[in-house]
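JOB MANIFEST
job_type = single_chain_structure
chain_count = 1
residues = 240
[input]
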Amino acid sequence: MKTDLNENEDLSTQIAEAIRDAIIEGSLIVDQRLPSEAELCEKFDVGRSTVREALKRLAAQNLIRTQRGAAGGAFVNRMSFEEAYDQQITTSTLLLSMNRVDFETACEARYALERSCAPLSAQRRTPDQLATMRAEIHRQSQPGLTDEAFCASDVAFHRALVDGAGNPVLSYQLAGAVEAMQPLMNMITYTQRDRDRIIALHSQIADALEAKDAAAANARLIDLETETLKLAKSAFAARR
């Protein structure tokens, strides 16, 4: 573990990064107990408050957990993909907003990645995932549904499609691509005609996945991307 610190940079951040790197490299393994606070203070030549702040940073990232008692201390956590979804979504959302990524660029990335899941989802989707897609299609057709709720349902539909690929790495990566776009999608106002078109495409995608027809699912995803871009262009032009 790297213990040399730059005095001109935040010490707790450097300590957290050193421990994180040791976990990533395998020097510290899952369920292994970290050195005590006193040992870390000696190792990095810093005060206890600095070490505690570093451990708080690692705990916030779900990289470590703490246990009380005689056998307690800080331990390397076993992080699941599901537990990391929120961090991925938050990071992706911040990147889109802070860097002012335009809607077309974000939409292109989302659907390009999602189409890579379609062939796998056509083969591996479960009945429960299909049922989730059908349930969201039904929800989207409900009268009085707000635009924000419609967009949230859209996210749930596409997450079920992505998760249907049965690949947790893809699901993790696409969690950000799909859900980070929701704030942008919320800016679009959907007329009934717009919703009917989207619902029809969602239904056709679900039908294609149920029939294990990857080509048809991909084709409808392309149609859906085109429709989404058209609606966004109209909505943003109206705002201007």
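[summary]
The chain has two domains: 11-76, 81-239.
The longest helix spans residues 214-239.
exit_status = 0
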